[in-house]
Amino acid sequence: MRCILLIVALAVIASTLVHVRRGEVRARYETRRMQSQQVSLQRELRSQQIQLSHLTSPARVRQTAEAMALGLTERTYAANRGGLGGSLAQRP
């Protein structure tokens, strides 16, 4: 009787160990997949940050304003260089 109980206990322990190891393998796989995705997303973020800096550079903003014929003049640009305050009321 003790022998059968011992065999059953060892089988339960072995089954539990296999289950735990399968969980570890899945977790490791998921961690690696997420790390790879993180690297990809960081690259995409850097690319978008570079694109944003190009689009918001003063030269690009001026070029876009001129292309859209917004009627912005040198005087308006000079007034805005001091900051955002007060220049809105002085626009022609």
What can you see in these coordinates?
It is rod-shaped and about 100 Å long. It has one domain. The C terminus is likely disordered. The protein has three helices and no strands. By secondary structure, it is an all-alpha fold. The longest helix has 54 residues.
What layout of secondary structure does this protein have?
Layout: H1 2-55, H2 58-67, H3 74-80
Rg computed from alpha carbons, rounded to a whole number of angstroms: 33 Å
Order of helices and strands: HHH
Average residue pLDDT: 85
Give a count of the beta strands, DSSP E runs of length 2 or more: 0
- Class per helix and strand makeup: mainly alpha
- Give me the number of helical elements: 3
Q: Could you give a short account of the major beta sheet?
A: none
* Helix content bin: over 70%
How far apart are the termini?
Answer: 101 Å
Tell me the number of structural domains: 1
Percent of residues in β-strands: under 5%
In the predicted model, the low-confidence regions spanning at least 5 consecutive residues are 85-92
Q: What is the general shape?
A: rod-shaped
Summarize this, please?
By secondary structure, the chain is mostly helical. The chain has three helices and no strands.
What attributes characterize this protein structure?
77% helix, mainly alpha, 92 residues
